[in-house]
Amino acid sequence: MINMNSQELNYLVYRYLHESGFTHTAFTLGYEAALNKSTIDGNLVPPGALVTFVQKGIQYLELEANLSCNDSDIDEDFSFIQPIDLITKNVYELQQMINEKKQNAQKAKTREKNKGNREPEQEHSREKDKESSREKEKEIEQEHVREREKERQRVREREREKKMEIEIHQEREKEKQIRDKERELEREKVEREKDKAKQKEKEKKNEDLDDAHREEDKTQVKQEENVTTEGPEPMEVDNNLTPLSSLIPNSDVTVLEGHTSEVFVCAWSPTGSLLASGSGDSTARIWTVGDGPCSSNSQKGPLSVAVLKHYRGRTNDKSKDVTTLDWNSEGTLLATGSYDGQARIWSKDGELVNTLAKHKGPIFSLKWNKKGDYLLSGSVDKTAIVWDIKTGEWKQQFEFHAAPTLDVDWRNNVSFATCSTDNMIYVCKVGDNRPVKTFAGHQGEVNAIKWDPTGTLLASCSDDSTAKIWSLKQDTCLHDLKEHTKEIYTIRWSPTGPGTNNPNQPLVLASASFDSTIKLWDVETGRLLHNLVAHGDPVYSVAFSPNGEYLASGSLDKCMHIWSVKEAKVVKTYMGSGGIFEVCWNKEGDKIGACFSNNVVIVLDFRM
Q: pLDDT tens, 370-383?
């Protein structure tokens, strides 16, 4: 075993003090220890020798303490002992301390291990939750896909039904054409018989024969007259044929030509002799119709017309079809709605005043309020928009429906109703973000809505073959009108009753259906007053005369009938050459406008 004497230790301390900068202390130690007399060669002692010896001694003690434990612990970390512990404690105390710290370390490792085992379980649980969430999202997405597919299927089904309906209409039109030709031949035959009788009468007056010959001529003329009076009899074979006495003569008809496609809508200006029409040729037209009879107007030459073009360049763009139009109450502005989703405002001279663009689908209905400061539009994009005419900007968009908006109608200057293919009706108010009233009851698409003249009752009609009358005072309908057998396309209130220009006449509701009939309803009781049957095809339009005494109806059977409301019978008939989409009266009630599928607009004189 190697030993170190005191002189060698003193020298190591001396070198430590000297190297550490303690010069005076080193000198004192060297003088007192007589190191100058030592035989130690300082060149053989490396710098920091004392520190090195002390470190190695500590390491030895640490090794000794650990090697005294169980052999299985040899590979354990020696970091359990601090240098101060090695100097202040003996080997036994060091071993005790190492054992305690190892035990504590082992417990910590066990806890860490248990924690590590729990983490995968927690991770697994979180993964299961995420997987469950993904499954739910996937189910929701699949449900949305199924709903969209159902919607597409319903759209395709409606398109197939409409296509079948069109084919049926075409077949009926062919049959009607054949019947029309037969009627025309019959009329010509009757006219020839009349002319023949007149000619005989004329010959009778001009002949200057003797009395015997005159008697023979008189007898012969009487025989001819008897034959002539039997001429019209075949007109009664078909019960649907119209009596000749009620046919409107051509002298009372003005045909307005110029449109190059079917004419869907028409409306008289409320203040003048202007008739507006809208067509599938991407134009609207404003016709100036004279105040006198049609016969006198025809002698003055062609009517003046303003063409309101909804296109730039191409004239065959179906996206520009004019689907709806409406005059303001002063008759100074005309609003048109188009298949391109834009509403346009025109002056009565046909100048474009403003274009209102915000809808994302075709506009099917638009209406001015009575004050004329707001315009209301309803679109396939499921919304209705109120436009501020002063600023030319949209004021509020109402997004309550879940499907295309088919019709809109003002109740007063700030409140209105909307209907949709989602079977719902909403009553809304400008400035409110929620519906004022919701009417649910129809089982099919709601095609049209109309407020009565006082804004008290709302009428609606639907593909479910019913019309209904609603009141803001209750959620369910006041009257459910169920006499029709097919879809009801349109409804109209009579301009009668309290608050109208005809207060002494009762208020009546008219409904027109694809079952080819028109029905008049008692509003108070919901009772059917009259069933008007004369058309052979769906009736698309009805309109009351301003005095409420007559009702005009237009059908795909090419006939326009004028009915006496009181007597519930046809008093006048016009037979055109195409299906009729809309009929309308002028403010005086002496002219009727109608638009046809064969591209023309006609104006009829009405006199009783």
A: 999 999 999 999 99
